[in-house]
Write the C-alpha coordinates for this entry.
Amino acid sequence: MTATLQKKICMLGAFSVGKTSLVKRFVESVFSETYLTTVGVKIDKKTVDLSNLTVSLILWDLAGEDDISSLRMSYLRGSAGYVLVADGTRPSTLEVAMSLRRRVETDFGPLPFVLLLNKNDLREEWAVRDEEVQDLQQSGWWVRSTSARTGEGVDDAFGTLAERVVR
Amino acid sequence: MEGVPTTIAEQLQALLCSERAVAYLQVDSGLNLVGAGGQLNAYGLAGLRLGEQAAEQAFFLEGFLPPVDTPFVVPSMELPSGRAADLHFFLQDDTCLVVLLDVSAERDAARRIQQKAYDMTLAQEREALLNRRLEAANAALLATQDELEASRDALARAHDQVQAQAAELAAWNKTLEERVAAQLGELERMARLKRFFAPSLAELIVSSGNERILESHRRDIAVLFCDLRGFTAFAESAEPEEVMALLRDYHAALVPLIQQFEGTLDRFVGDGLMVYFNDPLPCPNPAERAVGLAVAMRDSVAALARTWRRHDYQLGFGIGIAQGFATLGQIGFEGRFDYSAIGTVINTAARLCEAAKDGQILITSRLATSVADAADVREIGPMALKGLRRELAVCNVEALKAA
Protein backbone atom coordinates (compact mmCIF):
# COMPACT_ATOMS: atom_id res chain seq x y z
CA MET A 1 0.00 0.00 0.00
CA THR A 2 1.62 3.26 -1.07
CA ALA A 3 0.79 6.69 0.30
CA THR A 4 0.38 9.72 -2.01
CA LEU A 5 2.05 12.98 -1.18
CA GLN A 6 1.66 16.34 -2.88
CA LYS A 7 4.71 18.63 -3.10
CA LYS A 8 5.07 22.10 -4.56
CA ILE A 9 8.16 22.54 -6.71
CA CYS A 10 9.23 25.85 -8.28
CA MET A 11 11.12 26.21 -11.56
CA LEU A 12 13.59 29.11 -11.29
CA GLY A 13 15.99 30.60 -13.79
CA ALA A 14 16.72 33.37 -16.26
CA PHE A 15 14.39 33.86 -19.21
CA SER A 16 14.65 31.53 -22.18
CA VAL A 17 16.70 28.86 -20.40
CA GLY A 18 13.99 26.23 -21.04
CA LYS A 19 12.04 25.99 -17.76
CA THR A 20 8.66 25.66 -19.50
CA SER A 21 10.13 23.23 -22.05
CA LEU A 22 11.56 21.05 -19.26
CA VAL A 23 8.15 20.92 -17.53
CA LYS A 24 6.43 20.14 -20.83
CA ARG A 25 8.96 17.39 -21.57
CA PHE A 26 8.53 15.97 -18.03
CA VAL A 27 4.72 16.18 -17.88
CA GLU A 28 3.70 15.62 -21.51
CA SER A 29 6.89 14.12 -23.03
CA VAL A 30 6.80 16.68 -25.87
CA PHE A 31 9.01 19.54 -27.03
CA SER A 32 8.14 22.63 -29.05
CA GLU A 33 10.76 24.59 -31.01
CA THR A 34 8.70 27.76 -30.59
CA TYR A 35 9.77 29.96 -27.73
CA LEU A 36 6.77 31.32 -25.81
CA THR A 37 7.60 33.48 -22.83
CA THR A 38 5.86 32.78 -19.52
CA VAL A 39 3.96 35.56 -17.77
CA GLY A 40 3.44 35.20 -14.04
CA VAL A 41 3.42 31.52 -13.30
CA LYS A 42 2.19 28.32 -14.98
CA ILE A 43 0.90 25.49 -12.87
CA ASP A 44 1.18 21.84 -13.82
CA LYS A 45 1.08 18.50 -12.08
CA LYS A 46 2.94 15.24 -12.52
CA THR A 47 2.89 12.11 -10.42
CA VAL A 48 6.19 10.39 -9.72
CA ASP A 49 6.50 6.86 -8.39
CA LEU A 50 9.25 6.44 -5.84
CA SER A 51 10.27 3.19 -4.17
CA ASN A 52 7.62 3.14 -1.48
CA LEU A 53 5.30 6.03 -2.29
CA THR A 54 3.84 8.10 -5.05
CA VAL A 55 4.45 11.83 -5.06
CA SER A 56 2.38 14.37 -6.96
CA LEU A 57 4.65 17.20 -7.93
CA ILE A 58 2.81 20.52 -8.30
CA LEU A 59 5.10 22.35 -10.68
CA TRP A 60 5.20 26.13 -10.49
CA ASP A 61 6.85 27.34 -13.65
CA LEU A 62 7.82 30.91 -12.80
CA ALA A 63 8.38 33.60 -15.42
CA GLY A 64 12.10 33.98 -16.06
CA GLU A 65 13.67 37.08 -14.65
CA ASP A 66 17.19 38.32 -15.19
CA ASP A 67 16.62 40.91 -12.50
CA ILE A 68 16.08 38.80 -9.39
CA SER A 69 14.77 41.79 -7.46
CA SER A 70 11.65 41.58 -9.61
CA LEU A 71 11.07 37.94 -8.65
CA ARG A 72 7.70 37.58 -6.97
CA MET A 73 8.64 35.70 -3.84
CA SER A 74 4.91 35.14 -3.14
CA TYR A 75 4.99 32.40 -5.77
CA LEU A 76 7.51 30.44 -3.72
CA ARG A 77 5.41 30.35 -0.57
CA GLY A 78 4.93 26.76 0.59
CA SER A 79 7.45 25.35 -1.86
CA ALA A 80 9.03 21.98 -0.86
CA GLY A 81 11.95 22.37 -3.25
CA TYR A 82 13.00 23.98 -6.51
CA VAL A 83 14.71 23.38 -9.81
CA LEU A 84 17.37 25.89 -10.81
CA VAL A 85 17.72 26.03 -14.59
CA ALA A 86 20.55 27.61 -16.60
CA ASP A 87 21.29 27.58 -20.33
CA GLY A 88 24.64 25.87 -21.00
CA THR A 89 25.16 28.01 -24.08
CA ARG A 90 24.75 31.29 -22.09
CA PRO A 91 27.14 31.44 -19.10
CA SER A 92 25.38 34.55 -17.72
CA THR A 93 22.30 32.42 -16.97
CA LEU A 94 24.37 30.29 -14.55
CA GLU A 95 25.17 33.47 -12.61
CA VAL A 96 21.45 34.33 -12.53
CA ALA A 97 20.66 30.82 -11.23
CA MET A 98 23.22 31.18 -8.44
CA SER A 99 21.82 34.60 -7.46
CA LEU A 100 18.29 33.18 -7.37
CA ARG A 101 19.44 30.34 -5.18
CA ARG A 102 20.99 32.82 -2.69
CA ARG A 103 17.77 34.89 -2.70
CA VAL A 104 15.57 31.83 -2.05
CA GLU A 105 17.83 30.60 0.73
CA THR A 106 17.73 34.03 2.36
CA ASP A 107 13.91 34.16 2.32
CA PHE A 108 12.97 30.50 2.77
CA GLY A 109 15.98 28.74 4.26
CA PRO A 110 17.80 25.72 2.80
CA LEU A 111 15.30 23.91 0.55
CA PRO A 112 16.18 20.88 -1.58
CA PHE A 113 17.10 21.84 -5.15
CA VAL A 114 18.80 20.58 -8.29
CA LEU A 115 20.73 22.58 -10.89
CA LEU A 116 20.09 21.76 -14.53
CA LEU A 117 22.36 23.00 -17.34
CA ASN A 118 19.86 22.80 -20.16
CA LYS A 119 20.23 22.73 -23.98
CA ASN A 120 22.86 20.00 -23.85
CA ASP A 121 21.86 19.13 -27.43
CA LEU A 122 23.70 22.31 -28.54
CA ARG A 123 27.14 20.99 -27.56
CA GLU A 124 28.93 22.93 -30.27
CA GLU A 125 27.65 26.16 -28.67
CA TRP A 126 28.30 25.02 -25.07
CA ALA A 127 29.96 27.79 -23.08
CA VAL A 128 29.88 26.72 -19.43
CA ARG A 129 33.29 25.48 -18.33
CA ASP A 130 33.52 21.91 -17.01
CA GLU A 131 35.75 23.10 -14.14
CA GLU A 132 32.96 25.39 -12.90
CA VAL A 133 30.48 22.49 -12.89
CA GLN A 134 32.98 20.25 -11.09
CA ASP A 135 33.50 22.92 -8.43
CA LEU A 136 29.72 23.10 -7.81
CA GLN A 137 29.44 19.31 -7.62
CA GLN A 138 32.32 19.16 -5.17
CA SER A 139 30.51 21.67 -2.96
CA GLY A 140 27.58 19.19 -2.76
CA TRP A 141 25.32 20.48 -5.53
CA TRP A 142 23.38 18.03 -7.65
CA VAL A 143 24.15 19.27 -11.17
CA ARG A 144 23.17 17.67 -14.45
CA SER A 145 23.26 18.58 -18.10
CA THR A 146 19.81 18.19 -19.63
CA SER A 147 18.07 18.63 -22.93
CA ALA A 148 14.35 19.37 -23.08
CA ARG A 149 14.61 18.72 -26.83
CA THR A 150 15.90 15.15 -26.49
CA GLY A 151 14.67 14.47 -22.95
CA GLU A 152 18.22 13.74 -21.75
CA GLY A 153 18.44 13.85 -17.94
CA VAL A 154 14.93 15.32 -17.43
CA ASP A 155 13.13 12.46 -15.64
CA ASP A 156 16.28 11.76 -13.63
CA ALA A 157 16.40 15.36 -12.41
CA PHE A 158 12.73 15.56 -11.34
CA GLY A 159 12.90 12.08 -9.79
CA THR A 160 15.98 13.04 -7.78
CA LEU A 161 14.33 16.20 -6.52
CA ALA A 162 11.13 14.26 -5.63
CA GLU A 163 13.20 11.92 -3.48
CA ARG A 164 14.93 14.83 -1.81
CA VAL A 165 11.72 16.68 -0.93
CA VAL A 166 10.06 13.63 0.69
CA ARG A 167 13.11 12.71 2.74
CA MET B 1 -19.12 51.67 -3.80
CA GLU B 2 -19.48 54.96 -2.13
CA GLY B 3 -21.29 57.67 -4.10
CA VAL B 4 -22.32 55.20 -6.78
CA PRO B 5 -26.06 54.50 -7.23
CA THR B 6 -27.08 50.95 -6.31
CA THR B 7 -28.16 50.15 -9.85
CA ILE B 8 -24.76 51.12 -11.24
CA ALA B 9 -23.00 49.20 -8.48
CA GLU B 10 -25.08 46.12 -9.29
CA GLN B 11 -24.39 46.54 -13.03
CA LEU B 12 -20.67 46.83 -12.37
CA GLN B 13 -20.76 43.78 -10.11
CA ALA B 14 -22.55 41.79 -12.78
CA LEU B 15 -20.06 43.03 -15.41
CA LEU B 16 -17.08 42.07 -13.20
CA CYS B 17 -18.52 38.64 -12.52
CA SER B 18 -19.06 37.89 -16.22
CA GLU B 19 -15.86 39.50 -17.58
CA ARG B 20 -13.57 38.21 -14.85
CA ALA B 21 -15.14 34.77 -14.49
CA VAL B 22 -15.33 35.22 -10.77
CA ALA B 23 -15.19 32.02 -8.71
CA TYR B 24 -14.43 31.27 -5.07
CA LEU B 25 -13.37 28.53 -2.74
CA GLN B 26 -13.92 28.49 1.01
CA VAL B 27 -11.57 26.49 3.24
CA ASP B 28 -11.93 25.87 6.94
CA SER B 29 -9.22 25.61 9.56
CA GLY B 30 -8.96 21.86 8.93
CA LEU B 31 -8.02 22.75 5.29
CA ASN B 32 -11.27 21.13 4.10
CA LEU B 33 -13.33 22.67 1.35
CA VAL B 34 -16.49 24.01 2.90
CA GLY B 35 -17.78 26.22 0.14
CA ALA B 36 -17.33 26.93 -3.60
CA GLY B 37 -19.14 28.95 -6.21
CA GLY B 38 -19.03 31.23 -9.25
CA GLN B 39 -17.64 30.16 -12.63
CA LEU B 40 -15.71 27.16 -11.32
CA ASN B 41 -15.90 25.42 -14.71
CA ALA B 42 -13.79 28.19 -16.26
CA TYR B 43 -10.87 27.03 -14.07
CA GLY B 44 -11.42 23.29 -14.45
CA LEU B 45 -12.83 23.07 -10.93
CA ALA B 46 -16.15 21.32 -11.60
CA GLY B 47 -17.10 18.41 -9.39
CA LEU B 48 -15.55 19.70 -6.18
CA ARG B 49 -16.43 17.73 -3.08
CA LEU B 50 -17.24 19.76 0.04
CA GLY B 51 -15.85 18.45 3.30
CA GLU B 52 -12.70 17.00 1.67
CA GLN B 53 -9.15 18.38 1.58
CA ALA B 54 -9.13 21.56 -0.53
CA ALA B 55 -5.52 21.31 -1.83
CA GLU B 56 -6.05 17.74 -3.11
CA GLN B 57 -8.93 19.01 -5.31
CA ALA B 58 -7.50 22.42 -6.23
CA PHE B 59 -3.80 21.47 -6.37
CA PHE B 60 -2.65 25.05 -6.96
CA LEU B 61 -3.52 25.68 -3.28
CA GLU B 62 -0.70 23.34 -2.21
CA GLY B 63 1.63 25.22 0.11
CA PHE B 64 -0.66 28.21 0.61
CA LEU B 65 -2.93 26.74 3.29
CA PRO B 66 -3.41 27.83 5.95
CA PRO B 67 -2.59 31.37 4.78
CA VAL B 68 0.18 32.98 6.78
CA ASP B 69 -1.05 36.52 6.33
CA THR B 70 -4.07 37.96 4.61
CA PRO B 71 -5.08 39.55 2.38
CA PHE B 72 -2.61 37.82 0.04
CA VAL B 73 -2.52 37.77 -3.75
CA VAL B 74 -0.96 35.31 -6.17
CA PRO B 75 -0.98 37.21 -9.44
CA SER B 76 -1.39 35.80 -12.96
CA MET B 77 -1.41 32.10 -12.26
CA GLU B 78 -1.94 30.01 -15.44
CA LEU B 79 -3.80 26.76 -14.88
CA PRO B 80 -3.44 23.68 -17.11
CA SER B 81 -6.65 24.80 -18.88
CA GLY B 82 -4.67 27.81 -20.17
CA ARG B 83 -6.74 30.34 -18.30
CA ALA B 84 -4.82 32.79 -16.08
CA ALA B 85 -6.20 34.06 -12.80
CA ASP B 86 -5.27 36.26 -9.88
CA LEU B 87 -5.76 34.39 -6.60
CA HIS B 88 -6.96 36.56 -3.71
CA PHE B 89 -6.72 35.06 -0.22
CA PHE B 90 -8.60 36.66 2.67
CA LEU B 91 -10.23 35.55 5.90
CA GLN B 92 -13.89 35.46 6.73
CA ASP B 93 -14.83 34.35 10.23
CA ASP B 94 -12.89 31.10 10.74
CA THR B 95 -12.56 30.30 7.08
CA CYS B 96 -10.23 31.36 4.28
CA LEU B 97 -11.79 32.59 1.08
CA VAL B 98 -9.88 32.14 -2.17
CA VAL B 99 -11.30 34.26 -4.99
CA LEU B 100 -10.24 33.63 -8.59
CA LEU B 101 -10.37 36.52 -11.07
CA ASP B 102 -9.62 35.85 -14.72
CA VAL B 103 -6.64 37.87 -16.01
CA SER B 104 -6.07 35.96 -19.25
CA ALA B 105 -6.43 39.11 -21.39
CA GLU B 106 -3.88 41.00 -19.29
CA ARG B 107 -1.61 37.95 -19.33
CA ASP B 108 -1.82 37.83 -23.14
CA ALA B 109 -1.13 41.56 -23.48
CA ALA B 110 1.83 41.33 -21.09
CA ARG B 111 3.12 38.27 -22.95
CA ARG B 112 3.10 40.11 -26.28
CA ILE B 113 5.20 42.94 -24.85
CA GLN B 114 7.47 40.64 -22.86
CA GLN B 115 7.93 38.31 -25.81
CA LYS B 116 9.17 41.18 -27.99
CA ALA B 117 11.49 42.41 -25.26
CA TYR B 118 12.95 38.94 -24.67
CA ASP B 119 13.24 38.21 -28.39
CA MET B 120 15.11 41.47 -28.76
CA THR B 121 17.39 40.70 -25.80
CA LEU B 122 18.07 37.22 -27.16
CA ALA B 123 18.82 38.71 -30.58
CA GLN B 124 21.22 41.18 -28.96
CA GLU B 125 22.90 38.38 -27.00
CA ARG B 126 23.22 36.33 -30.16
CA GLU B 127 24.57 39.34 -32.02
CA ALA B 128 27.10 39.96 -29.25
CA LEU B 129 28.08 36.29 -29.33
CA LEU B 130 28.45 36.39 -33.12
CA ASN B 131 30.49 39.56 -32.80
CA ARG B 132 32.78 37.86 -30.29
CA ARG B 133 33.14 34.88 -32.62
CA LEU B 134 33.78 37.20 -35.56
CA GLU B 135 36.41 39.05 -33.55
CA ALA B 136 37.99 35.73 -32.56
CA ALA B 137 37.87 34.57 -36.19
CA ASN B 138 39.32 37.89 -37.28
CA ALA B 139 42.11 37.62 -34.71
CA ALA B 140 42.80 34.07 -35.90
CA LEU B 141 42.83 35.31 -39.49
CA LEU B 142 45.25 38.10 -38.58
CA ALA B 143 47.46 35.59 -36.77
CA THR B 144 47.30 33.32 -39.83
CA GLN B 145 48.11 36.30 -42.03
CA ASP B 146 51.13 37.09 -39.83
CA GLU B 147 52.22 33.46 -40.07
CA LEU B 148 51.73 33.53 -43.84
CA GLU B 149 53.76 36.73 -44.12
CA ALA B 150 56.48 35.16 -41.97
CA SER B 151 56.36 32.05 -44.18
CA ARG B 152 56.47 34.23 -47.28
CA ASP B 153 59.53 36.08 -45.95
CA ALA B 154 61.18 32.78 -45.08
CA LEU B 155 60.29 31.52 -48.56
CA ALA B 156 61.74 34.66 -50.13
CA ARG B 157 64.92 34.20 -48.11
CA ALA B 158 65.09 30.54 -49.13
CA HIS B 159 64.47 31.61 -52.76
CA ASP B 160 67.28 34.18 -52.58
CA GLN B 161 69.55 31.56 -51.04
CA VAL B 162 68.69 29.07 -53.78
CA GLN B 163 69.25 31.77 -56.43
CA ALA B 164 72.62 32.64 -54.89
CA GLN B 165 73.55 28.96 -54.77
CA ALA B 166 72.40 28.55 -58.38
CA ALA B 167 74.54 31.54 -59.41
CA GLU B 168 77.47 30.11 -57.49
CA LEU B 169 76.89 26.75 -59.14
CA ALA B 170 76.69 28.39 -62.57
CA ALA B 171 79.99 30.15 -61.84
CA TRP B 172 81.52 26.86 -60.77
CA ASN B 173 80.15 25.21 -63.89
CA LYS B 174 81.61 27.97 -66.03
CA THR B 175 84.97 27.61 -64.29
CA LEU B 176 84.74 23.86 -64.69
CA GLU B 177 83.84 24.18 -68.36
CA GLU B 178 86.73 26.56 -68.88
CA ARG B 179 89.08 24.21 -67.07
CA VAL B 180 87.79 21.24 -69.07
CA ALA B 181 88.15 23.26 -72.31
CA ALA B 182 91.64 24.32 -71.27
CA GLN B 183 92.58 20.78 -70.39
CA LEU B 184 91.08 19.48 -73.63
CA GLY B 185 93.04 22.14 -75.49
CA GLU B 186 96.15 21.09 -73.65
CA LEU B 187 95.48 17.43 -74.48
CA GLU B 188 95.00 18.32 -78.16
CA ARG B 189 98.15 20.39 -78.20
CA MET B 190 99.97 17.66 -76.35
CA ALA B 191 98.82 15.05 -78.86
CA ARG B 192 99.96 17.29 -81.68
CA LEU B 193 103.30 18.08 -80.09
CA LYS B 194 104.02 14.48 -79.16
CA ARG B 195 104.21 13.71 -82.83
CA PHE B 196 107.37 15.83 -83.01
CA PHE B 197 108.91 15.83 -79.59
CA ALA B 198 109.76 13.56 -76.73
CA PRO B 199 106.79 13.41 -74.30
CA SER B 200 108.73 15.34 -71.66
CA LEU B 201 109.43 18.07 -74.20
CA ALA B 202 105.84 18.13 -75.40
CA GLU B 203 104.64 18.58 -71.81
CA LEU B 204 107.16 21.35 -71.27
CA ILE B 205 105.91 23.21 -74.32
CA VAL B 206 102.29 22.81 -73.27
CA SER B 207 102.92 23.84 -69.68
CA SER B 208 104.89 26.89 -70.84
CA GLY B 209 101.76 27.85 -72.81
CA ASN B 210 103.98 29.35 -75.46
CA GLU B 211 103.50 27.85 -78.89
CA ARG B 212 105.26 30.69 -80.55
CA ILE B 213 108.33 28.50 -80.46
CA LEU B 214 106.63 26.53 -83.23
CA GLU B 215 106.66 29.58 -85.49
CA SER B 216 109.29 29.78 -88.26
CA HIS B 217 112.76 30.65 -86.91
CA ARG B 218 116.49 29.94 -87.37
CA ARG B 219 118.58 28.03 -84.89
CA ASP B 220 121.84 26.16 -84.55
CA ILE B 221 120.89 22.53 -84.31
CA ALA B 222 122.56 19.11 -84.35
CA VAL B 223 120.87 16.85 -86.92
CA LEU B 224 121.04 13.04 -86.91
CA PHE B 225 120.05 10.80 -89.80
CA CYS B 226 120.08 7.02 -89.66
CA ASP B 227 118.89 4.14 -91.78
CA LEU B 228 119.52 0.49 -92.52
CA ARG B 229 122.00 -0.68 -95.08
CA GLY B 230 120.54 -3.21 -97.55
CA PHE B 231 116.97 -2.42 -96.54
CA THR B 232 115.73 -1.74 -100.10
CA ALA B 233 116.94 -5.12 -101.31
CA PHE B 234 115.50 -6.80 -98.22
CA ALA B 235 112.11 -5.09 -98.75
CA GLU B 236 111.99 -6.24 -102.33
CA SER B 237 112.69 -9.88 -101.50
CA ALA B 238 110.89 -10.31 -98.18
CA GLU B 239 107.20 -10.67 -97.54
CA PRO B 240 105.51 -7.35 -96.63
CA GLU B 241 104.55 -8.84 -93.22
CA GLU B 242 108.22 -9.61 -92.53
CA VAL B 243 109.21 -6.09 -93.54
CA MET B 244 106.57 -4.54 -91.31
CA ALA B 245 107.53 -6.78 -88.35
CA LEU B 246 111.19 -5.85 -88.76
CA LEU B 247 110.41 -2.13 -88.93
CA ARG B 248 108.20 -2.46 -85.83
CA ASP B 249 111.09 -4.00 -83.85
CA TYR B 250 113.53 -1.44 -85.26
CA HIS B 251 111.37 1.58 -84.36
CA ALA B 252 110.50 0.07 -80.99
CA ALA B 253 114.19 -0.10 -80.22
CA LEU B 254 115.09 3.41 -81.44
CA VAL B 255 112.20 5.68 -80.55
CA PRO B 256 112.52 5.22 -76.75
CA LEU B 257 116.20 6.14 -77.10
CA ILE B 258 115.28 9.36 -78.94
CA GLN B 259 112.91 10.24 -76.13
CA GLN B 260 115.54 9.31 -73.53
CA PHE B 261 118.02 11.75 -75.12
CA GLU B 262 115.25 14.36 -75.57
CA GLY B 263 115.73 14.61 -79.31
CA THR B 264 113.09 15.97 -81.65
CA LEU B 265 111.91 13.20 -83.99
CA ASP B 266 111.31 14.92 -87.28
CA ARG B 267 110.10 12.02 -89.42
CA PHE B 268 110.11 8.33 -90.30
CA VAL B 269 110.71 7.45 -93.89
CA GLY B 270 110.69 3.68 -94.06
CA ASP B 271 113.89 2.66 -92.29
CA GLY B 272 115.20 6.22 -92.19
CA LEU B 273 114.83 8.51 -89.19
CA MET B 274 115.67 12.19 -88.78
CA VAL B 275 116.26 13.58 -85.28
CA TYR B 276 117.61 16.94 -84.19
CA PHE B 277 118.59 18.66 -80.94
CA ASN B 278 118.34 22.21 -79.52
CA ASP B 279 114.94 22.87 -80.98
CA PRO B 280 112.23 23.74 -80.33
CA LEU B 281 113.50 23.87 -76.75
CA PRO B 282 117.15 24.73 -76.33
CA CYS B 283 119.37 22.12 -74.70
CA PRO B 284 122.99 22.16 -73.55
CA ASN B 285 125.52 20.37 -75.77
CA PRO B 286 123.25 19.34 -78.64
CA ALA B 287 126.20 17.77 -80.46
CA GLU B 288 127.11 15.58 -77.48
CA ARG B 289 123.53 14.49 -77.13
CA ALA B 290 123.34 13.64 -80.83
CA VAL B 291 126.52 11.59 -80.61
CA GLY B 292 125.35 9.88 -77.40
CA LEU B 293 122.10 8.95 -79.09
CA ALA B 294 123.91 7.68 -82.15
CA VAL B 295 126.13 5.35 -80.10
CA ALA B 296 123.10 4.05 -78.17
CA MET B 297 121.28 3.47 -81.46
CA ARG B 298 124.22 1.63 -82.94
CA ASP B 299 124.44 -0.67 -79.92
CA SER B 300 120.72 -1.31 -79.95
CA VAL B 301 120.57 -2.10 -83.67
CA ALA B 302 123.67 -4.30 -83.34
CA ALA B 303 121.71 -6.44 -80.88
CA LEU B 304 118.76 -6.56 -83.29
CA ALA B 305 121.07 -7.41 -86.17
CA ARG B 306 122.18 -10.57 -84.44
CA THR B 307 118.58 -11.76 -84.49
CA TRP B 308 118.19 -10.64 -88.10
CA ARG B 309 121.20 -12.61 -89.14
CA ARG B 310 119.64 -15.73 -87.69
CA HIS B 311 116.78 -15.05 -90.12
CA ASP B 312 119.35 -14.49 -92.82
CA TYR B 313 118.53 -10.81 -93.12
CA GLN B 314 121.67 -9.02 -94.36
CA LEU B 315 121.14 -5.55 -92.92
CA GLY B 316 123.59 -2.93 -91.73
CA PHE B 317 123.07 0.36 -89.85
CA GLY B 318 124.61 3.77 -90.60
CA ILE B 319 124.31 7.19 -89.00
CA GLY B 320 125.26 10.73 -90.09
CA ILE B 321 125.36 13.79 -87.84
CA ALA B 322 125.93 17.45 -88.71
CA GLN B 323 125.60 20.75 -86.84
CA GLY B 324 124.66 24.15 -88.17
CA PHE B 325 121.89 26.72 -88.58
CA ALA B 326 118.60 25.62 -90.05
CA THR B 327 115.18 27.19 -90.52
CA LEU B 328 112.59 25.48 -88.34
CA GLY B 329 108.84 25.77 -87.90
CA GLN B 330 105.47 24.44 -88.89
CA ILE B 331 105.05 23.61 -92.51
CA GLY B 332 101.95 22.39 -94.29
CA PHE B 333 98.36 23.66 -94.33
CA GLU B 334 95.30 23.72 -92.09
CA GLY B 335 94.56 20.17 -90.98
CA ARG B 336 97.92 18.78 -91.89
CA PHE B 337 100.78 20.61 -90.20
CA ASP B 338 104.24 19.21 -89.54
CA TYR B 339 107.14 20.70 -87.64
CA SER B 340 110.32 20.40 -89.62
CA ALA B 341 113.78 21.78 -90.30
CA ILE B 342 115.17 23.01 -93.63
CA GLY B 343 118.73 23.92 -94.45
CA THR B 344 122.13 22.70 -95.67
CA VAL B 345 122.84 21.07 -92.30
CA ILE B 346 119.96 18.71 -92.97
CA ASN B 347 121.36 17.73 -96.37
CA THR B 348 124.83 17.33 -94.90
CA ALA B 349 123.61 14.98 -92.16
CA ALA B 350 121.55 13.03 -94.72
CA ARG B 351 124.52 12.68 -97.06
CA LEU B 352 126.82 11.58 -94.22
CA CYS B 353 124.23 8.93 -93.32
CA GLU B 354 124.21 7.74 -96.93
CA ALA B 355 127.97 7.55 -96.92
CA ALA B 356 128.23 5.68 -93.63
CA LYS B 357 128.98 2.02 -93.74
CA ASP B 358 127.45 -0.54 -91.38
CA GLY B 359 128.32 0.47 -87.85
CA GLN B 360 129.70 3.89 -88.79
CA ILE B 361 128.63 7.18 -87.23
CA LEU B 362 129.90 9.84 -89.60
CA ILE B 363 130.16 13.40 -88.33
CA THR B 364 131.63 16.62 -89.67
CA SER B 365 135.03 17.61 -88.34
CA ARG B 366 133.46 20.73 -86.84
CA LEU B 367 131.14 18.56 -84.84
CA ALA B 368 134.00 16.24 -83.92
CA THR B 369 135.75 19.20 -82.30
CA SER B 370 132.62 19.93 -80.27
CA VAL B 371 132.40 16.39 -78.89
CA ALA B 372 136.11 15.78 -78.45
CA ASP B 373 135.70 15.58 -74.66
CA ALA B 374 132.86 13.11 -74.87
CA ALA B 375 133.75 10.71 -77.65
CA ASP B 376 136.65 8.98 -79.27
CA VAL B 377 136.63 10.07 -82.90
CA ARG B 378 138.68 8.86 -85.79
CA GLU B 379 139.33 11.09 -88.78
CA ILE B 380 138.40 9.53 -92.12
CA GLY B 381 139.40 12.37 -94.36
CA PRO B 382 137.68 14.62 -96.90
CA MET B 383 134.66 13.16 -98.64
CA ALA B 384 132.76 14.41 -101.71
CA LEU B 385 129.16 14.20 -100.76
CA LYS B 386 126.24 14.39 -103.18
CA GLY B 387 124.68 17.84 -103.42
CA LEU B 388 127.64 19.57 -101.73
CA ARG B 389 129.96 21.65 -103.82
CA ARG B 390 133.00 21.14 -101.67
CA GLU B 391 134.52 18.11 -100.06
CA LEU B 392 133.87 17.77 -96.38
CA ALA B 393 136.22 16.64 -93.66
CA VAL B 394 134.52 13.64 -92.05
CA CYS B 395 135.13 11.66 -88.85
CA ASN B 396 133.76 8.44 -87.45
CA VAL B 397 132.68 8.09 -83.81
CA GLU B 398 134.36 5.04 -82.41
CA ALA B 399 132.98 5.07 -78.89
CA LEU B 400 131.98 7.30 -76.05
CA LYS B 401 134.56 8.20 -73.50
CA ALA B 402 134.05 6.83 -70.06
CA ALA B 403 132.40 9.41 -67.79
Summary: The domain at 3-166 of chain A is CATH 3.40.50.300 (Rossmann fold). The mean pLDDT of chain A is 91. The CA atoms of residues 102 and 109 of chain A lie 9 Å apart. Chain A has one domain: 3-166.
